[in-house]
Structures are given as C-alpha cells and as structure tokens.
Hints:
By secondary structure, the protein is mainly α. The protein has one domain (6-92). It contains four helices and two strands, in the order H-H-H-E-E-H. It has helices spanning 6-17, 28-40, 46-50, 84-90; strands spanning 59-62, 79-82. It is flat. Residues 32-88 form the HNH nuclease domain. Keywords: Endonuclease, Hydrolase, Nuclease. It holds the Pfam family HNH.
Amino acid sequence: MNLMTPEILDRxxxxxxxxxxxxFYWTKEWRIIRKVRRQRDNNECQRCMRAGRYTPADMVHxxxxxxxxxxxxxxxxxxxxxxxxCHNREHPEKxxxxxxxxxxxVEQW
Length: 109
C-alpha cells in the first residue's frame, strides 16, 4: 500500500527543505498508513515481538527515514510498530539534547 502522489511528494520535500517535517505527521494520508500499520501489527512492538516479548506499540516507525527517503514516507512496507524504548534505540540522536538534571542537595542556610 502506497498513498504517495507527486503532489504529496513535492509538499513533503518542501517540508524537509524548510525543516518542518513534523507537519507531515498530521496529514490525512499518514494517519491512514499509521492506522493500517497498527491494525496489521496488532498494535504490538515488532522488535519486542521478534525477541519473544509482548509490548504495546507507542508509535509507527519509518524503517528508512523520511528525510533521506521521502518517496517511501507513505509506503506501508516501510513502517513498523515500535514501543518507545525500541524507537529510542533506533534514534539515539533524537535523545542527545535531553539531559535530566542531576539531583543537587546543597544545603543553604
């Protein structure tokens, strides 16, 4: 299943160029692909399932990144359901800006 059209691809390329890719995830076409993928994967994390564990999926992941392969953004076979920990392992660069503040117990009187 592939819902990509030349018009959608042009729009997506423009979103990538202007660093607004997140807007793509609000499109009707992406919501259709996401819904179908969740149904096909029974809303289970596919990586955990391959490891013999059941974990509910938190998101639908693009196997080949949208920025590098916009033509595959609406290709069902380029998606899989993942839980947050599996998705974070897939994209550690997205976590690099997040640093939790360490507890500092400096008493001040």
